[in-house]
TrEMBL record, chain A:
One of its GO terms (cellular component) is ATP-binding cassette (ABC) transporter complex. It comes from Kribbella rubisoli. InterPro entries: AA_ABC_transptr_permease_3TM (IPR010065), ArtM/GltK/GlnP/TcyL/YhdX-like (IPR043429), MetI-like (IPR000515), MetI-like_sf (IPR035906). SUPFAM superfamilies: MetI-like. It is found in: Cell membrane. This is Amino acid ABC transporter membrane protein (PAAT family). The keyword Ribosomal protein does not apply. Belongs to the binding-protein-dependent transport system permease family. Its main location: membrane.
From TrEMBL, chain B:
One of its GO terms (molecular function) is ATP binding. Belongs to the ABC transporter superfamily. It is found in: Cell membrane. Its main location: membrane. It comes from the Bacteria. Residues 2-246 form the ABC transporter domain. This is ABC-type polar-amino-acid transporter. It is an enzyme of class 7 (translocase). The keyword Nucleotide-binding applies. Its EC number is 7.4.2.1. It comes from Kribbella rubisoli. It catalyses: a polar amino acid(out) + ATP + H2O = a polar amino acid(in) + ADP + phosphate + H(+). Keywords: Amino-acid transport, ATP-binding, Cell membrane, Membrane, Nucleotide-binding, Transport. One of its GO terms (cellular component) is plasma membrane.
Length: 297, 250
Protein backbone atom coordinates (compact mmCIF):
# COMPACT_ATOMS: atom_id res chain seq x y z
CA UNK A 1 0.00 0.00 0.00
CA UNK A 2 1.42 3.43 -0.91
CA UNK A 3 1.56 6.47 1.32
CA UNK A 4 -0.66 8.56 -0.93
CA UNK A 5 -3.52 6.15 -0.71
CA UNK A 6 -3.30 6.16 3.11
CA UNK A 7 -3.47 9.95 3.18
CA UNK A 8 -6.39 10.13 0.82
CA UNK A 9 -8.34 7.57 2.80
CA UNK A 10 -7.80 9.41 6.09
CA UNK A 11 -8.56 12.76 4.36
CA UNK A 12 -11.83 11.45 3.00
CA UNK A 13 -13.16 10.03 6.23
CA UNK A 14 -11.52 12.48 8.68
CA UNK A 15 -9.33 11.14 11.49
CA UNK A 16 -11.18 9.78 14.50
CA UNK A 17 -10.72 12.06 17.52
CA UNK A 18 -9.03 9.42 19.64
CA UNK A 19 -6.68 8.04 16.93
CA UNK A 20 -2.98 9.02 16.74
CA UNK A 21 -2.64 11.30 13.64
CA UNK A 22 -0.76 9.90 10.64
CA UNK A 23 2.79 11.17 9.91
CA UNK A 24 1.62 13.14 6.88
CA UNK A 25 -0.80 15.16 9.00
CA UNK A 26 1.65 16.30 11.68
CA UNK A 27 2.52 20.01 11.92
CA UNK A 28 6.10 21.02 11.02
CA UNK A 29 8.32 22.81 13.57
CA UNK A 30 11.30 24.72 12.18
CA UNK A 31 14.75 24.00 13.67
CA UNK A 32 15.66 26.30 16.61
CA UNK A 33 18.90 28.28 16.69
CA UNK A 34 19.48 29.23 20.34
CA UNK A 35 23.17 30.19 19.78
CA UNK A 36 22.15 32.88 17.35
CA UNK A 37 20.30 34.62 20.15
CA UNK A 38 23.34 34.33 22.42
CA UNK A 39 25.45 35.89 19.63
CA UNK A 40 22.98 38.73 19.16
CA UNK A 41 23.01 39.43 22.89
CA UNK A 42 26.82 39.53 23.07
CA UNK A 43 27.09 41.86 20.07
CA UNK A 44 24.37 44.17 21.41
CA UNK A 45 26.16 44.46 24.76
CA UNK A 46 29.48 45.26 23.03
CA UNK A 47 27.83 47.89 20.79
CA UNK A 48 26.09 49.43 23.79
CA UNK A 49 29.40 49.64 25.67
CA UNK A 50 31.07 51.30 22.67
CA UNK A 51 28.26 53.84 22.19
CA UNK A 52 28.24 54.56 25.89
CA UNK A 53 31.97 55.17 25.73
CA UNK A 54 31.58 57.52 22.76
CA UNK A 55 29.06 59.55 24.72
CA UNK A 56 30.72 59.60 28.13
CA UNK A 57 34.49 59.32 27.56
CA UNK A 58 35.79 62.92 27.58
CA UNK A 59 38.74 61.80 25.43
CA UNK A 60 36.55 61.91 22.32
CA UNK A 61 36.17 65.61 22.89
CA UNK A 62 33.00 66.12 20.85
CA UNK A 63 32.93 69.92 21.23
CA UNK A 64 36.25 70.10 19.33
CA UNK A 65 34.95 67.61 16.78
CA UNK A 66 31.93 69.79 16.02
CA UNK A 67 34.05 72.92 16.07
CA UNK A 68 36.04 71.64 13.08
CA UNK A 69 33.76 69.12 11.37
CA UNK A 70 32.01 71.52 9.01
CA UNK A 71 34.54 74.30 8.67
CA UNK A 72 35.76 75.89 5.49
CA UNK A 73 39.30 74.47 5.96
CA UNK A 74 37.96 70.95 6.19
CA UNK A 75 35.64 71.43 3.19
CA UNK A 76 38.43 72.71 0.98
CA UNK A 77 40.64 69.83 2.13
CA UNK A 78 37.80 67.41 1.37
CA UNK A 79 37.48 68.96 -2.09
CA UNK A 80 41.18 68.26 -2.77
CA UNK A 81 40.64 64.65 -1.68
CA UNK A 82 37.63 64.31 -3.97
CA UNK A 83 39.57 65.82 -6.88
CA UNK A 84 42.49 63.43 -6.35
CA UNK A 85 40.03 60.53 -6.28
CA UNK A 86 38.13 61.59 -9.39
CA UNK A 87 41.21 62.35 -11.48
CA UNK A 88 43.01 59.24 -10.23
CA UNK A 89 40.00 57.07 -11.01
CA UNK A 90 39.17 58.52 -14.42
CA UNK A 91 42.74 58.65 -15.71
CA UNK A 92 43.64 55.36 -14.03
CA UNK A 93 40.72 53.45 -15.50
CA UNK A 94 41.17 55.03 -18.94
CA UNK A 95 44.81 54.01 -19.06
CA UNK A 96 43.84 50.69 -17.47
CA UNK A 97 41.34 50.01 -20.27
CA UNK A 98 44.04 50.68 -22.84
CA UNK A 99 46.47 48.39 -21.03
CA UNK A 100 43.83 45.65 -20.70
CA UNK A 101 43.08 45.75 -24.42
CA UNK A 102 46.82 45.65 -25.12
CA UNK A 103 47.25 42.56 -22.95
CA UNK A 104 44.30 40.90 -24.70
CA UNK A 105 45.43 41.87 -28.20
CA UNK A 106 46.94 39.34 -30.55
CA UNK A 107 50.11 41.42 -30.91
CA UNK A 108 52.97 40.01 -28.82
CA UNK A 109 54.56 43.47 -28.84
CA UNK A 110 51.55 45.14 -27.20
CA UNK A 111 51.14 42.22 -24.79
CA UNK A 112 54.70 42.51 -23.54
CA UNK A 113 54.57 46.31 -23.19
CA UNK A 114 51.35 46.13 -21.16
CA UNK A 115 52.63 43.25 -19.06
CA UNK A 116 55.84 45.18 -18.35
CA UNK A 117 53.92 48.28 -17.29
CA UNK A 118 51.69 46.33 -14.94
CA UNK A 119 54.68 44.45 -13.53
CA UNK A 120 56.57 47.70 -12.86
CA UNK A 121 53.76 49.69 -11.29
CA UNK A 122 52.52 46.84 -9.13
CA UNK A 123 56.07 46.29 -7.89
CA UNK A 124 56.74 49.85 -6.73
CA UNK A 125 55.05 50.90 -3.50
CA UNK A 126 52.69 53.82 -4.13
CA UNK A 127 54.38 56.02 -1.57
CA UNK A 128 57.80 55.47 -3.15
CA UNK A 129 56.43 56.20 -6.59
CA UNK A 130 54.74 59.39 -5.37
CA UNK A 131 58.00 60.61 -3.85
CA UNK A 132 59.75 59.96 -7.16
CA UNK A 133 57.20 62.11 -9.01
CA UNK A 134 57.43 64.75 -6.34
CA UNK A 135 61.19 64.88 -6.85
CA UNK A 136 61.14 64.52 -10.62
CA UNK A 137 62.66 67.97 -11.05
CA UNK A 138 65.75 66.65 -9.27
CA UNK A 139 66.23 64.10 -12.06
CA UNK A 140 64.96 66.14 -15.01
CA UNK A 141 64.98 69.91 -14.56
CA UNK A 142 63.52 70.50 -18.00
CA UNK A 143 61.43 68.57 -20.42
CA UNK A 144 61.55 69.35 -24.11
CA UNK A 145 59.89 68.17 -27.29
CA UNK A 146 62.19 67.50 -30.20
CA UNK A 147 64.02 64.77 -32.06
CA UNK A 148 65.50 62.15 -29.72
CA UNK A 149 69.23 62.89 -29.27
CA UNK A 150 68.74 65.72 -31.80
CA UNK A 151 67.49 69.31 -31.80
CA UNK A 152 64.81 70.39 -29.32
CA UNK A 153 61.88 72.62 -30.14
CA UNK A 154 59.91 73.35 -26.97
CA UNK A 155 61.13 73.46 -23.37
CA UNK A 156 59.19 73.16 -20.12
CA UNK A 157 60.44 73.57 -16.62
CA UNK A 158 59.49 70.32 -14.91
CA UNK A 159 58.41 72.10 -11.77
CA UNK A 160 55.96 74.28 -13.68
CA UNK A 161 54.57 71.34 -15.57
CA UNK A 162 53.80 69.24 -12.50
CA UNK A 163 52.77 71.15 -9.44
CA UNK A 164 52.58 69.01 -6.29
CA UNK A 165 48.94 68.26 -7.08
CA UNK A 166 49.83 67.27 -10.64
CA UNK A 167 52.55 64.96 -9.37
CA UNK A 168 50.09 63.38 -6.94
CA UNK A 169 47.41 62.83 -9.61
CA UNK A 170 50.01 61.41 -11.98
CA UNK A 171 51.33 59.01 -9.35
CA UNK A 172 47.88 57.88 -8.23
CA UNK A 173 46.63 57.45 -11.81
CA UNK A 174 49.67 55.50 -13.00
CA UNK A 175 49.46 53.24 -9.96
CA UNK A 176 45.71 52.82 -10.34
CA UNK A 177 46.03 52.01 -14.05
CA UNK A 178 48.05 48.86 -13.34
CA UNK A 179 45.35 47.50 -11.04
CA UNK A 180 42.46 48.75 -13.18
CA UNK A 181 43.99 47.00 -16.20
CA UNK A 182 43.89 43.63 -14.48
CA UNK A 183 40.33 44.17 -13.23
CA UNK A 184 39.12 45.14 -16.68
CA UNK A 185 40.98 42.25 -18.29
CA UNK A 186 39.45 39.88 -15.73
CA UNK A 187 35.99 41.18 -16.58
CA UNK A 188 36.53 40.77 -20.28
CA UNK A 189 37.83 37.21 -20.10
CA UNK A 190 34.91 36.27 -17.86
CA UNK A 191 32.52 36.86 -20.78
CA UNK A 192 31.76 33.61 -22.59
CA UNK A 193 33.87 33.28 -25.74
CA UNK A 194 30.70 32.31 -27.63
CA UNK A 195 29.49 35.90 -27.34
CA UNK A 196 32.45 37.25 -29.30
CA UNK A 197 32.24 34.39 -31.74
CA UNK A 198 28.57 35.10 -32.41
CA UNK A 199 29.32 38.79 -32.85
CA UNK A 200 32.14 37.95 -35.27
CA UNK A 201 29.92 35.51 -37.17
CA UNK A 202 27.28 38.22 -37.57
CA UNK A 203 29.89 40.58 -38.99
CA UNK A 204 29.44 43.19 -36.25
CA UNK A 205 32.32 45.73 -36.50
CA UNK A 206 35.20 45.17 -34.10
CA UNK A 207 34.75 48.31 -31.98
CA UNK A 208 31.03 47.65 -31.71
CA UNK A 209 31.69 44.01 -30.70
CA UNK A 210 33.64 45.37 -27.75
CA UNK A 211 31.41 48.23 -26.62
CA UNK A 212 28.01 46.75 -27.40
CA UNK A 213 28.49 43.03 -26.75
CA UNK A 214 31.51 42.33 -24.52
CA UNK A 215 31.92 45.36 -22.26
CA UNK A 216 28.33 45.55 -20.93
CA UNK A 217 28.58 41.89 -19.91
CA UNK A 218 32.12 42.31 -18.56
CA UNK A 219 30.86 45.20 -16.39
CA UNK A 220 29.08 42.66 -14.20
CA UNK A 221 32.37 41.45 -12.80
CA UNK A 222 34.35 44.68 -13.34
CA UNK A 223 32.01 46.76 -11.18
CA UNK A 224 32.39 45.18 -7.71
CA UNK A 225 36.18 45.08 -8.06
CA UNK A 226 36.24 48.51 -9.67
CA UNK A 227 34.21 50.00 -6.83
CA UNK A 228 36.63 48.43 -4.38
CA UNK A 229 39.46 50.17 -6.19
CA UNK A 230 37.72 53.55 -6.23
CA UNK A 231 36.98 53.34 -2.52
CA UNK A 232 40.47 52.19 -1.75
CA UNK A 233 41.90 55.02 -3.88
CA UNK A 234 39.63 57.50 -2.12
CA UNK A 235 41.07 56.54 1.26
CA UNK A 236 44.50 55.96 -0.26
CA UNK A 237 44.70 59.64 -1.20
CA UNK A 238 45.63 60.20 2.44
CA UNK A 239 49.06 58.90 1.47
CA UNK A 240 49.79 62.07 -0.51
CA UNK A 241 49.87 63.93 2.81
CA UNK A 242 53.58 63.01 2.75
CA UNK A 243 53.89 65.48 -0.12
CA UNK A 244 52.30 68.26 1.95
CA UNK A 245 49.27 68.44 -0.32
CA UNK A 246 46.38 69.96 1.64
CA UNK A 247 43.98 67.06 1.36
CA UNK A 248 41.75 65.90 4.18
CA UNK A 249 44.21 63.85 6.19
CA UNK A 250 47.06 66.35 5.79
CA UNK A 251 44.78 69.18 6.90
CA UNK A 252 43.63 67.46 10.12
CA UNK A 253 47.27 66.66 10.88
CA UNK A 254 48.10 70.36 10.50
CA UNK A 255 45.25 71.30 12.83
CA UNK A 256 46.06 68.81 15.55
CA UNK A 257 49.70 69.80 15.21
CA UNK A 258 48.60 73.23 16.32
CA UNK A 259 46.02 72.43 19.00
CA UNK A 260 47.12 68.89 20.05
CA UNK A 261 43.53 67.57 19.91
CA UNK A 262 44.54 64.47 17.99
CA UNK A 263 41.54 62.18 18.56
CA UNK A 264 38.66 64.55 17.71
CA UNK A 265 40.43 65.68 14.55
CA UNK A 266 41.13 62.11 13.46
CA UNK A 267 37.40 61.55 13.99
CA UNK A 268 36.62 64.50 11.70
CA UNK A 269 38.60 62.83 8.92
CA UNK A 270 37.18 59.39 9.74
CA UNK A 271 33.56 60.52 9.62
CA UNK A 272 34.07 62.28 6.27
CA UNK A 273 35.77 59.20 4.83
CA UNK A 274 32.83 57.09 6.03
CA UNK A 275 30.23 59.48 4.62
CA UNK A 276 31.78 59.59 1.16
CA UNK A 277 32.47 55.85 1.07
CA UNK A 278 28.81 55.29 1.91
CA UNK A 279 27.81 57.52 -1.00
CA UNK A 280 30.11 55.54 -3.32
CA UNK A 281 28.57 52.27 -2.12
CA UNK A 282 25.09 53.56 -2.87
CA UNK A 283 26.16 54.63 -6.36
CA UNK A 284 27.72 51.19 -6.84
CA UNK A 285 24.42 49.52 -5.95
CA UNK A 286 22.47 51.39 -8.60
CA UNK A 287 25.13 51.07 -11.30
CA UNK A 288 25.36 47.31 -10.70
CA UNK A 289 21.60 46.98 -10.89
CA UNK A 290 21.66 48.73 -14.26
CA UNK A 291 24.21 46.27 -15.66
CA UNK A 292 22.35 43.23 -14.32
CA UNK A 293 19.76 43.45 -17.12
CA UNK A 294 18.91 40.07 -18.59
CA UNK A 295 20.71 38.08 -15.91
CA UNK A 296 17.69 36.89 -13.94
CA UNK A 297 14.61 35.06 -15.02
CA UNK B 1 26.87 28.77 -54.20
CA UNK B 2 29.40 27.41 -51.71
CA UNK B 3 32.57 26.05 -53.22
CA UNK B 4 35.20 24.44 -51.00
CA UNK B 5 38.44 23.26 -52.58
CA UNK B 6 41.29 21.31 -51.02
CA UNK B 7 40.82 22.68 -47.51
CA UNK B 8 43.40 21.61 -44.91
CA UNK B 9 43.42 22.65 -41.29
CA UNK B 10 45.58 21.64 -38.34
CA UNK B 11 45.41 22.49 -34.66
CA UNK B 12 49.02 22.11 -33.60
CA UNK B 13 50.09 18.63 -34.65
CA UNK B 14 46.54 17.42 -35.12
CA UNK B 15 45.33 17.63 -38.69
CA UNK B 16 41.56 18.07 -38.49
CA UNK B 17 40.78 18.63 -42.15
CA UNK B 18 42.79 16.63 -44.64
CA UNK B 19 41.75 18.04 -47.98
CA UNK B 20 38.05 18.75 -48.27
CA UNK B 21 36.23 19.41 -51.52
CA UNK B 22 32.59 20.39 -51.35
CA UNK B 23 30.14 22.01 -53.70
CA UNK B 24 26.77 23.28 -52.49
CA UNK B 25 24.53 24.54 -55.28
CA UNK B 26 22.15 27.45 -54.65
CA UNK B 27 18.95 26.34 -52.93
CA UNK B 28 20.37 22.99 -51.91
CA UNK B 29 20.47 21.56 -48.41
CA UNK B 30 23.62 19.69 -47.45
CA UNK B 31 23.73 17.70 -44.25
CA UNK B 32 27.10 16.73 -42.79
CA UNK B 33 27.18 13.64 -40.59
CA UNK B 34 30.07 12.01 -38.81
CA UNK B 35 31.44 10.97 -35.44
CA UNK B 36 32.65 13.68 -33.07
CA UNK B 37 36.18 14.77 -33.88
CA UNK B 38 35.70 14.05 -37.55
CA UNK B 39 36.12 17.72 -38.48
CA UNK B 40 32.49 18.56 -39.34
CA UNK B 41 32.29 21.67 -37.18
CA UNK B 42 35.74 22.87 -38.22
CA UNK B 43 34.71 22.57 -41.86
CA UNK B 44 31.53 24.52 -41.21
CA UNK B 45 33.41 27.20 -39.29
CA UNK B 46 36.02 27.54 -42.03
CA UNK B 47 33.25 28.30 -44.54
CA UNK B 48 32.71 31.72 -42.94
CA UNK B 49 36.34 32.09 -41.87
CA UNK B 50 35.67 31.68 -38.15
CA UNK B 51 38.50 29.20 -38.59
CA UNK B 52 41.45 30.11 -40.80
CA UNK B 53 42.38 27.33 -43.16
CA UNK B 54 46.02 26.36 -43.69
CA UNK B 55 45.59 25.44 -47.34
CA UNK B 56 42.80 25.44 -49.88
CA UNK B 57 40.03 27.95 -50.45
CA UNK B 58 36.38 28.67 -49.88
CA UNK B 59 34.19 30.63 -52.27
CA UNK B 60 30.66 31.82 -51.65
CA UNK B 61 28.77 33.04 -54.68
CA UNK B 62 32.08 33.28 -56.52
CA UNK B 63 33.71 35.47 -53.86
CA UNK B 64 36.87 34.16 -52.20
CA UNK B 65 36.30 34.08 -48.42
CA UNK B 66 38.93 35.47 -46.07
CA UNK B 67 41.61 35.98 -48.71
CA UNK B 68 42.41 37.98 -51.76
CA UNK B 69 44.44 36.61 -54.59
CA UNK B 70 47.37 38.78 -55.60
CA UNK B 71 49.64 37.17 -58.17
CA UNK B 72 50.08 33.57 -57.14
CA UNK B 73 49.56 34.15 -53.40
CA UNK B 74 46.50 34.37 -51.17
CA UNK B 75 46.70 37.36 -48.81
CA UNK B 76 44.51 37.37 -45.76
CA UNK B 77 41.91 40.13 -45.90
CA UNK B 78 41.65 42.93 -43.39
CA UNK B 79 39.30 42.22 -40.52
CA UNK B 80 36.75 44.73 -41.77
CA UNK B 81 36.50 42.91 -45.10
CA UNK B 82 36.14 39.54 -43.40
CA UNK B 83 33.36 40.90 -41.22
CA UNK B 84 31.57 42.23 -44.29
CA UNK B 85 31.79 38.78 -45.89
CA UNK B 86 30.48 37.11 -42.74
CA UNK B 87 27.46 39.35 -42.64
CA UNK B 88 26.32 37.54 -45.82
CA UNK B 89 26.52 34.16 -44.11
CA UNK B 90 24.08 33.16 -41.39
CA UNK B 91 25.62 31.00 -38.67
CA UNK B 92 23.63 29.16 -35.99
CA UNK B 93 25.61 27.80 -33.04
CA UNK B 94 25.07 24.68 -30.99
CA UNK B 95 24.88 26.78 -27.81
CA UNK B 96 22.76 29.59 -29.38
CA UNK B 97 25.13 32.34 -28.18
CA UNK B 98 22.37 34.92 -27.92
CA UNK B 99 23.53 38.20 -26.38
CA UNK B 100 22.29 37.82 -22.81
CA UNK B 101 22.13 41.52 -21.95
CA UNK B 102 20.03 42.41 -24.98
CA UNK B 103 16.35 41.67 -25.51
CA UNK B 104 15.26 39.20 -28.17
CA UNK B 105 14.40 42.02 -30.56
CA UNK B 106 17.72 43.81 -29.91
CA UNK B 107 19.53 40.54 -30.61
CA UNK B 108 17.90 40.29 -34.02
CA UNK B 109 18.23 43.97 -34.93
CA UNK B 110 21.88 44.41 -33.84
CA UNK B 111 23.79 43.01 -36.83
CA UNK B 112 21.65 44.37 -39.69
CA UNK B 113 22.01 47.85 -38.18
CA UNK B 114 25.67 47.76 -37.16
CA UNK B 115 27.15 45.40 -39.75
CA UNK B 116 25.00 46.21 -42.77
CA UNK B 117 24.20 49.83 -41.87
CA UNK B 118 20.50 49.37 -42.52
CA UNK B 119 18.05 51.73 -40.85
CA UNK B 120 16.69 50.62 -37.50
CA UNK B 121 13.21 51.80 -38.47
CA UNK B 122 13.32 49.50 -41.47
CA UNK B 123 14.96 46.54 -39.71
CA UNK B 124 12.67 46.41 -36.69
CA UNK B 125 9.44 45.48 -38.49
CA UNK B 126 11.37 42.87 -40.46
CA UNK B 127 12.87 41.49 -37.24
CA UNK B 128 9.41 41.19 -35.69
CA UNK B 129 8.21 39.45 -38.81
CA UNK B 130 11.09 36.95 -38.56
CA UNK B 131 10.37 36.32 -34.88
CA UNK B 132 6.76 35.69 -35.84
CA UNK B 133 7.92 33.26 -38.51
CA UNK B 134 10.01 31.19 -36.11
CA UNK B 135 7.13 31.22 -33.63
CA UNK B 136 8.40 33.57 -30.91
CA UNK B 137 6.64 36.73 -32.05
CA UNK B 138 5.33 37.38 -28.54
CA UNK B 139 8.82 37.22 -26.97
CA UNK B 140 10.38 40.26 -28.67
CA UNK B 141 10.92 42.22 -25.47
CA UNK B 142 12.12 39.53 -23.06
CA UNK B 143 15.72 38.57 -22.37
CA UNK B 144 17.12 35.29 -23.75
CA UNK B 145 17.45 33.74 -20.28
CA UNK B 146 13.68 33.87 -19.91
CA UNK B 147 13.25 31.53 -22.89
CA UNK B 148 13.49 27.76 -23.23
CA UNK B 149 16.40 26.31 -25.20
CA UNK B 150 14.18 25.65 -28.19
CA UNK B 151 12.90 29.21 -28.19
CA UNK B 152 16.44 30.58 -27.83
CA UNK B 153 17.63 28.58 -30.81
CA UNK B 154 14.69 29.81 -32.87
CA UNK B 155 15.60 33.39 -31.94
CA UNK B 156 19.19 32.61 -32.99
CA UNK B 157 17.86 31.44 -36.37
CA UNK B 158 15.84 34.65 -36.72
CA UNK B 159 18.99 36.61 -35.83
CA UNK B 160 20.91 34.87 -38.59
CA UNK B 161 18.07 35.38 -41.10
CA UNK B 162 17.87 39.10 -40.33
CA UNK B 163 21.08 39.61 -42.33
CA UNK B 164 19.29 38.25 -45.42
CA UNK B 165 22.23 35.88 -45.85
CA UNK B 166 23.13 34.10 -49.06
CA UNK B 167 23.74 30.87 -47.17
CA UNK B 168 22.87 29.50 -43.74
CA UNK B 169 25.23 27.34 -41.70
CA UNK B 170 23.96 25.29 -38.75
CA UNK B 171 26.43 23.79 -36.28
CA UNK B 172 24.60 20.99 -34.45
CA UNK B 173 21.59 23.25 -33.86
CA UNK B 174 19.70 20.74 -31.72
CA UNK B 175 22.51 19.06 -29.74
CA UNK B 176 22.13 21.31 -26.70
CA UNK B 177 18.36 20.93 -26.51
CA UNK B 178 16.13 18.76 -24.34
CA UNK B 179 14.68 15.95 -26.51
CA UNK B 180 11.15 17.36 -26.48
CA UNK B 181 12.39 20.72 -27.83
CA UNK B 182 14.33 19.32 -30.80
CA UNK B 183 11.26 19.07 -33.01
CA UNK B 184 10.29 22.73 -32.87
CA UNK B 185 13.76 23.82 -34.04
CA UNK B 186 13.93 21.20 -36.79
CA UNK B 187 10.50 22.33 -38.02
CA UNK B 188 11.81 25.86 -38.48
CA UNK B 189 14.85 24.61 -40.40
CA UNK B 190 12.64 22.38 -42.58
CA UNK B 191 10.48 25.32 -43.47
CA UNK B 192 13.55 27.33 -44.49
CA UNK B 193 14.62 24.41 -46.68
CA UNK B 194 11.22 24.36 -48.35
CA UNK B 195 11.52 28.10 -49.03
CA UNK B 196 14.69 27.39 -51.00
CA UNK B 197 17.41 28.60 -48.64
CA UNK B 198 20.95 27.37 -49.30
CA UNK B 199 22.00 25.54 -46.15
CA UNK B 200 24.73 23.40 -44.68
CA UNK B 201 23.68 21.57 -41.53
CA UNK B 202 25.94 19.62 -39.20
CA UNK B 203 23.72 17.33 -37.17
CA UNK B 204 23.21 13.93 -35.59
CA UNK B 205 19.53 13.78 -36.51
CA UNK B 206 19.47 11.06 -39.17
CA UNK B 207 15.71 11.21 -39.69
CA UNK B 208 15.92 14.94 -40.25
CA UNK B 209 18.76 14.44 -42.74
CA UNK B 210 16.71 11.91 -44.66
CA UNK B 211 13.78 14.31 -44.81
CA UNK B 212 15.38 17.58 -45.91
CA UNK B 213 18.84 16.88 -47.34
CA UNK B 214 19.55 17.08 -51.03
CA UNK B 215 23.02 15.78 -50.28
CA UNK B 216 24.29 13.90 -47.26
CA UNK B 217 27.99 13.96 -46.55
CA UNK B 218 29.64 11.51 -44.21
CA UNK B 219 32.92 12.70 -42.69
CA UNK B 220 35.44 10.74 -40.71
CA UNK B 221 38.96 11.57 -39.60
CA UNK B 222 39.14 14.86 -41.50
CA UNK B 223 37.99 13.48 -44.84
CA UNK B 224 34.73 13.19 -46.71
CA UNK B 225 34.19 9.43 -46.81
CA UNK B 226 30.98 9.36 -48.76
CA UNK B 227 28.49 11.80 -50.22
CA UNK B 228 25.32 11.58 -52.22
CA UNK B 229 21.54 11.60 -51.98
CA UNK B 230 20.17 10.56 -48.58
CA UNK B 231 18.82 7.32 -50.04
CA UNK B 232 22.29 6.28 -51.14
CA UNK B 233 24.36 7.39 -48.15
CA UNK B 234 21.88 6.59 -45.39
CA UNK B 235 20.22 3.47 -46.76
CA UNK B 236 22.93 1.89 -48.91
CA UNK B 237 26.23 3.17 -47.61
CA UNK B 238 29.21 1.91 -49.58
CA UNK B 239 31.85 2.37 -46.92
CA UNK B 240 32.22 0.25 -43.85
CA UNK B 241 32.78 3.32 -41.61
CA UNK B 242 29.56 4.97 -42.81
CA UNK B 243 27.64 1.76 -42.15
CA UNK B 244 29.10 1.42 -38.68
CA UNK B 245 28.26 5.04 -37.81
CA UNK B 246 24.70 4.91 -39.09
CA UNK B 247 23.93 1.65 -37.34
CA UNK B 248 25.20 3.20 -34.09
CA UNK B 249 23.20 6.40 -34.40
CA UNK B 250 19.89 4.88 -35.53
Amino acid sequence: MSTTSVTSVSGASGPPASAVPLDADLPVVARRHPWRWVGVAVVLVLVAMFVHGLATNPGWDWPTFFQFFATRTIFSALWVTVQLTVYGTVLGFMLGAVLASMRLSSSPFLQVVAWGYIWAFRSIPLIVQLLFWFNIAYLYKELSIGIPFGPEFVHFSTNNLFGPLGAAVLGLALHQAAYAAEIIRGGIISVDAGQLEAAAALGIPRIRQFFRIVLPQAMRSILPNGANEVISLFKGTSIVSVMAIPELFYQVQVIYGRNSRVVPLLMVATVWYIVLTTLLSIVQYYVERRFARGTTR
Amino acid sequence: MIDVKGVHKSFGDLEVLKGIDLDVPAGAVTVILGPSGSGKSTLLRSINHLEKVDRGLVRIDGELIGYKRRGDKLHELREREILRQRSQVGFVFQTFNLFGHLTVLQNVVEAPVSAQRRKRSEVEPYARELLERVGVGDKADVYPRQLSGGQQQRVAIARALALKPKVLLFDEPTSALDPELVGEVLDVIKELARDGATMVVVTHEIGFAREIADTVIFMDDGRIVESGAPREVLDNPVHERTRAFISKVL
